[in-house]
Amino acid sequence: MQDFQTIKKQASDFRKAKNYEQALPLYKQLWEEYREDCNEWEGWSYAFALKHLKDYQKALEVCREVYPLNKEFENIKGVYAWCIYYTEIALKVINDEPKFFKAGKEF
């Protein structure tokens, strides 16, 4: 079994090369098996890869876990906002005004 730093480096290299399909399982492994070692950056990277692979619902779930770790972390706010957009606004016509405005209040 590889160690946290090795997996993190491989995942980061894949993400930086925009190879999200290769990065995703590594970030998932980090998030699930090394959670106590992960910080907002690993969480953001995991959500970022999910978003780029259009798994917006799972990315939103990860964002909801990462955001409380550091509410000032700008990177997660962007991914979080896009995931809300894709899951709550873009794919549906929202005729329910309270639901529409609730989507923006998560921050």
Task: Describe the protein's architecture and organization.
The chain is an all-alpha fold. It has one domain: Tetratricopeptide repeat domain (Serine Threonine Protein Phosphatase 5, Tetratricopeptide repeat, Alpha Horseshoe). It contains six helices and no strands. It has helices at residues 4-16, 20-33, 40-52, 56-66, 74-89, 97-104. It is elongated, with a radius of gyration of 15 Å. The chain starts with a helix and ends with a helix.
Strand content: under 5%
Q: How many helices does DSSP assign?
A: 6
Label the overall shape.
elongated
Multimerization status: single chain
The CATH class, by name, is: Mainly Alpha
- The third-level CATH topology is Serine Threonine Protein Phosphatase 5, Tetratricopeptide repeat
Whole-number count of domains: 1
* CATH homologous superfamily label: Tetratricopeptide repeat domain
Helix and strand pattern: HHHHHH
What is the compact description of this entry?
The protein has 107 residues and is mainly α.
Secondary-structure topology with pairs:
Layout: H1 4-16, H2 20-33, H3 40-52, H4 56-66, H5 74-89, H6 97-104
Helix pairs in contact: 1-2, 2-3, 3-4, 3-5, 4-5
